[in-house]
Every structure is written in structure tokens, then in C-alpha cells.
Amino acid sequence: MRLKTYIAPTTAEAMELVRREMGDDAIIVSTQMGSDGRGTRVTAALEPEQWTGEDSAVDAEAEPADVAGAVGHALTYHGTPPRLVERLLRLAIALEADNPTMALAGALDAGFTFAPLAGSGDGPPTMLVGPPGVGKTVTTAKLAARTRLARRHPGVITTDTRRAGGVAQLEAFTRILEIDLKTADTVEALTRAVAACEGCDGITIDTPGTNPYSDTELEELQVHAEAATAEPILVLAAGGDALEAADIAVSFAAVGARRLLVTRLDMARRLGSILAAADAARLSFCDVSITPHVADGLSPINPVALARLMMPDGNDANANSHPTKAAP
Questions:
Q1: What is the mean pLDDT of residues 114-138?
Q2: If exposure means fewest CB atoms within 10 Å of the residue's CB, which of 15, 126, 185, 248 is most exposed?
């Protein structure tokens, strides 16, 4: 999107400037008091093909010192839904930070919750859930590898017994890690498998891909989670449509998911979909996968790391490059 900031004595006059130059299709991403305490600054966005105005000295792209403009541009670049952009911008502006990355980090900290997966193995079994193809099986292997590298012994169970090669894929990983993979094709078998893992340093349960719009599949998933007394963790791949991701997240939240684990950050340039998913379903961010390699594992995510992923060069509002790993 094209972003431009307008300055006028009053909000009404600034809005009139927006309407005259950008038209009725413009999206208002922020409204704030002028830097000297007088007047109003309105930042508006428009798709490039809709833009007919001339560049100006108050263009947010050409004004790196404009923290609100830089944050707004980054959020719109990442495909964040407009209402969420507005809310995060209000939070960022209220912080009065001098650095766009830190302003975005503060807004993310205020707007979302972050709850990394425990590395100790304490707590209930972890059940990885989500639609097909988001990387649940590889993520299961990564969690198991992380535990083994800490010189502990994890329990690993899969209920993905119907998909061709589903068990074989995970078994190839667990064999290398010297872990006895347990399979469960029924609720009763899952209960027995969990009991057999008593004494393990944490239990991770891989599940088949679930259609988020199938009541039957969601109900079956919920029955399995309850039988295993497990915490469902929603796994979603970065990238994709923000509104679709939000709908998917709401569906899995209805069956008990409270945390979001993001995969394929190395293959996505736009992260608005994961913000939309967490926001729509009130999910906490936990860990992220930034590489397909099992040995490299998962990384906990925090507001500063997420902000740096969205503004990799600190003040780069265009976010035209992507880091290879999350910052601590």
C-alpha cells in the first residue's frame, strides 16, 4: 500500500485533504496530534494502482523519523487487517518511542500475549493441531529433538495413522533420536499411549490435519484432546491470507487452542496473517519455526523478536528482506 501523512490545523481539514487527494477508498491508519502539539497528522493508505496524487515531503516512506508512518507502513506491507493496523498504531503512538522497531515491539507487547512452550516437560501433554500441511509432524520432531538435546527423554505419540506415510515420516525422526514412537488410532488407544508415557519428560502428540470448517473433524479432535488431558497448540504456517487465517484460528480456539505456534517463517515475507489469527482467536504466541531442519529446532518468540522480523533492519519500514532467525 501507498502511505501518506497529511498535516492540517484540524482533523476535519486533514481528512478533507485525504479525501481530495486519495479519494473515498483511502484507509485511515492513524490520527495524531502534530509534533509541536498543534494541528493534526493523519496517515492514510491506498493501494498503489489507486494512487493518483503527487509525492510530497510528508510522505511517510520518505520520512524515516516519522515513527508512526514507519510502523503503519510495515503493518500494511505485511497485510495486517486495517482495523488491527489502527489499533496497533494507537498503541505504538502512545508509547512515544523514538525507534519504529521499539514502537512496534511495544504495541505488540500491549496488543498480544506471549507464552513460550515450557522446556522442562512440566504440564499436560502438548497436542499439535491445525489444518493439513502446516508442519505439525516436523514440529513434533523438533520438540522431541529439543528435549533430547537437553538430555531428557520425551514421549512422542501420533494419531496421524490414516494419512499415507504419516507414521513413517515421524518414525524416521524418532528412530534417529532413539525415541519409541507410540501410535494411537482410537481414543482408547490414545489414552493407553499417554499412560505408557508416564515418567517421560513431556509428551507431544502429533495429529492429522483437521478441516477447520468441518464440525465432525473438530469434535473428533476435541474428544481426543480431552481423552489425553492435553493442551491443543494451534500450528499455522506464516504467509497466506489474513482473514482466512483468522477464521481458522477461531475454529481451533473453539476446541481449546490457546496458543499459536508459527512455522515456515523462512518462507514467508508477510506476517499479517499470524497477527490476524492471534488477534481474532485471542491466542498467545509461543514458539516459531524458522528452518525446515529438525536439529535447528524452534525458537521462543517475544515482542521485540517479532517486531524485528517485521522490520528486519530496525528502521526499515519497507521490510523488503527477511532475517534467517529470530532475534532473542
A1: 89
A2: 185
CATH of the domain at 258: 3.40.50.300
pLDDT at 25: 72
Same domain, 137 and 232: yes
What is the Cα Rg of the chain in Å? 22
137 and 214 part of one domain:
yes
Q: Verify that 9 and 95 share a domain, yes or no.
A: yes
**Residue 65 belongs to a domain:** yes
Report helix, strand or coil for 293.
coil
Residue 322 grid cell: 527477511
Last residue of a domain, one of 111, 144, 169: 111
On whether both 159 and 103 belong to a single domain, the answer is no
Is residue 267 pLDDT above 80, yes or no? Answer: yes
* Secondary structure (DSSP) of 163-199: STTHHHHHHHHHHHTT---EE-SSHHHHHHHHHHTTT
Rounded (5°) CA angle 294-141-172? 90
CA distance 270 to 238: 8
Cα distances (angstroms) measured from residue 306 to each of 87, 102, 192, 309: 17, 11, 39, 5
> How many other CB atoms are there within 10 angstroms of residue 34's CB atom?
13
pLDDT at 12: 80
pLDDT digits (tens, 9 = 90+) for 134-175: 999 999 999 999 898 888 999 999 999 888 777 898 999 999
Enter the C-alpha cell of residue 36.
509541536
Domain that includes residue 14, residue range: 2-111
Are the beta carbons of 285 and 301 closer than 8 angstroms? Answer: yes
Q: Kindly state whether residues 134 and 95 are assigned to the same domain.
A: no
What's the domain count of the chain? 2
Alpha carbons within 13 angstroms on the beta-carbon side of residue 17 total 19
The answer to the question of residue 180 being in a domain is yes
Residues 292 and 225 in one domain: yes
Contact 79, 93 (CB under 8 A): no
* pTM score of the predicted model: 0.77
